[in-house]
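Journal club prep, shared notes

We agreed each person brings one worked example of a sequence with its structure written out as tokens. Mine is Lipoprotein LPP20-like domain-containing protein. I'm keeping it raw so we can talk through how to read the token line rather than staring at a rendered picture. Sequence first:
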Amino acid sequence: MRLLGYCLLLGTLAGCSTLYDKQVEWEYVEPQSYPLLKAVGYAPVAAQQGSSDTVKMLQAIKASKLDAYRELAEQVYGQRLSGQQELSNLVLDNATLRSSVDGVIRGAKVIKSYAVDEDTYATELELDMRKVHDIYLSVAKPKRIKDVKYY
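Then the structure, token by token:
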């Protein structure tokens, strides 16, 4: 009886195993089109901290470049919004809305940096998604199944 139980258990376990093996062939995926994203960042010169007008201008150039990168990150990753409202005696007492952007931008290039007027500086950036895709391929190697062969 015990021998019959072991045989049934062994038969059940053997039935659950795969009787064949498989080989999966992968191929790389390339998008059909690549957009060209553009962003412009602005910064006021007078509001910058610095001991001279030249230092303030250099700070405004950096700030406008960072603002342009923020705009590119919004286009690529989107913007996170969170809001809160408070009521007091069924009257809106306080309403807040916060936004944030988080992401990594690689491959963007500065097209132009220029003074809009005597108090505002602007920087134009461009992000070619083909270049971003090439950078991504060098790091991640995305794949999809090309063929599966069962033996």
